[in-house]
Amino acid sequence: MGYTKAPDDWWQTFVTALPARTAKLAVTRLDGSPHVAPVWVDLDGDDIVFMTSADTIKGKSILRDGRVALCWDDERPPFAFVTVTGRATTSTDPDELLRWGTRIGGRYMGAEQAQAYGRRNAVPPEMVVRVHVERVVAKVDVAD
After folding, report:
1. pTM for the full model?
2. How far is 60 from 103, CA to CA, in rounded Å?
3. Other Cβ atoms within 10 Å of 115 Cβ, number
4. Nearest to residue 42, comparing CAs of 17, 76, 78, 63?
5. Which of 31, 48, 94, 111 has the fewest Cβ atoms nearer than 10 Å?
6. Number of folded domains in the chain?
7. What is the 3-state secondary structure (H, E, C) of 33-50?
């Protein structure tokens, strides 16, 4: 039993596959303890983009530190996963909030609901989070 290292560019296809997989975002709380929460994501080149409120644990952590990790997995045999670590930057620009809220909402809820999700999420204290990828671990055929 083992696994196979995925090709270097495979992770982008896995992350953007439809139906959309929810990423699990890991950050650290103010006291240093871990915090994991699901997020909807999309890619912009090799950057991972998602949205969150500045008032959440994950938002506060990103604003304070910027280091994050994300994980996606395929729970069906023979199993596969991608983990990414990187540094996050944020934007509260109204045009970016609307554009990314609409794009990400459409990925997860379908094109017919994209505009509604975009408008709903394009308001303060929401922010666009862009993760500049520093390290990727991608494995396929974990159970083979």
Report:
1. 0.94
2. 24
3. 14
4. 17
5. 31
6. 1
7. CEEEEEECEEEECCEEEE
CATH number at 59 reads: 2.30.110.10
DSSP per residue over 22-82, as a string? PEEEEEE-TTS-EEEEEE-EEEETTEEEEEEETTSHHHHHHHHT-EEEEEEEE-STT-EEE
pLDDT tens-place string over residues 89-134: 999 999 999 999 999 999 999 999 999 999 999 999 999 999 999 9
Evaluate whether 81 touches 5 at the Cβ level (below 8 Å): no
Q: Which residues constitute the domain of residue 40?
A: 4-140
pLDDT tens across 22-63, in order? 999 999 999 999 999 999 999 999 999 999 999 999 999 999
Whats the size of the chain, residue-wise?
144
